Every structure is written in structure tokens, then in C-alpha cells.
């Protein structure tokens, strides 16, 4: 489901993950709730790719405040989401990381690659 005329859409209801998306001033904010792992990576990828390929969008912010679990497959999905955004000339950032998610990204040396504004306050 793409952005509606009002710029807000709910993502696919997949087991273990939900998306709430809003586009404002050319920036898509995708709020992710649940787990990012092998079972949910395709839904995340499809959601980010859809916004990255939208001509009205020049930036994608992935809000991970409500992400409760992230495994190595999820890390790969986040990196693929970033690549899709960059390939479409979109800025990309992840924000509002829970400590467990931040730790996984630190241990895999992907925290800085993903673009967390302000370094510590994301």
C-alpha cells in the first residue's frame, strides 16, 4: 500500500512486525513495531523500497522505537533498505533505537553506516 493523498498509510500486517508510515515535506517516516528478523525482512524491504522509489520522497527515516528484536537477518534487511534508498537518491536514517537494537548495530559495526542522527540520541 503506497502513500495516500494525505501522506499516511499503514503497512502490511505481517506476523511479528507492523509499519506506520507518514510522508511530510518529502520525507517518509516509517515507524516499525515488532521484530526485524528472517520472517519480517521482506515486508521491511518492500516498505522502504516503495517509499524510496516514490518521486515525491527525498528522504526516508526509519523509526525503530518499537522494535523489540533485531537479529543478523534484520541487520542485513536494514542495510538493504539503506542501499535501496541511496540508489534512489534518498537520504536515509534510523532513529529511536532501543538499547538492545543499538547494541546489535554496534556489535556488527553498522550503526554509523545506517545513519543515526546525533550519534547517541537516536
Q: What key attributes describe this structure?
A:
globular, single chain, Transcription Regulator spoIIAA, 122 residues, 4 helices, disordered C terminus
Descriptive account of the structure:
The protein has 122 residues and is of the alpha/beta class. The protein has one domain: STAS domain (Transcription Regulator spoIIAA). 34% of the residues lie in helices and 31% in strands. It is built from 4 helices and 5 strands; from the N terminus they run βββαβαβαα. The chain has helices at 41-52, 72-87, 99-107, 111-114; strands spanning 8-10, 17-24, 27-36, 59-70, 91-95. It has a 5-stranded mixed sheet. Helix 1 packs parallel to helix 2. The termini are far apart. Mean pLDDT is 84; it is low at 1-14 and 118-122.
Put the structure in a nutshell.
This protein is an alpha/beta fold and 122 residues long.
Structural class: alpha/beta
Figure out the total of helices: 4
What is the CATH C-level name?
A: Alpha Beta
CATH superfamily: STAS domain
Terminal CA distance reads: 27 Å
Radius of gyration: 13 Å
CATH topology, anyone?
Transcription Regulator spoIIAA
Average pLDDT taken over every residue: 84
Spatial strand arrangement across the major sheet: 1-2-3-4-5
Number of strands: 5
In the CATH hierarchy, what is the architecture at level 2? 2-Layer Sandwich
Q: Give the SSE order as H and E letters.
A: EEEHEHEHH
Molecular shape: globular
**In the residues, how many domains can be counted?**
1
The low-pLDDT segments are 1-14, 118-122
Q: Helicity range of the residues?
A: 25-40%
- Strand content is 25-35%
Largest beta sheet, briefly? 5 strands, mixed
Amino acid at each position: 500500500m503506497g502513500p495516500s493523498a494525505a501522506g499516511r498509510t499503514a503497512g502490511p500486517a505481517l506476523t511479528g512486525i507492523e509499519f506506520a508510515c507518514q510522508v511530510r515535506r518529502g520525507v517518509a517516516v516509517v515507524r516499525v513495531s515488532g521484530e526485524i528478523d528472517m520472517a519480517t525482512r521482506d515486508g521491511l524491504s518492500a516498505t522502504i523500497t516503495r517509499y524510496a522509489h516514490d518521486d515525491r520522497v527525498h528522504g526516508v527515516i526509519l523509526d525503530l522505537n518499537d522494535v523489540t528484536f533485531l537479529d543478523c537477518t534484520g541487520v542485513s534487511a536494514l542495510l538493504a533498505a539503506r542501499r535501496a534508498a541511496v540508489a534512489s537518491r534518498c537520504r536515509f536514517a534510523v532513529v529511536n533505537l532501543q538499547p538492545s537494537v543499538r547494541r546489535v548495530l554496534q556489535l556488527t559495526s553498522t550503526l554509523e553506516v545506517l545513519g543515526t542522527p546525533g550519534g547517541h540520541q537516536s
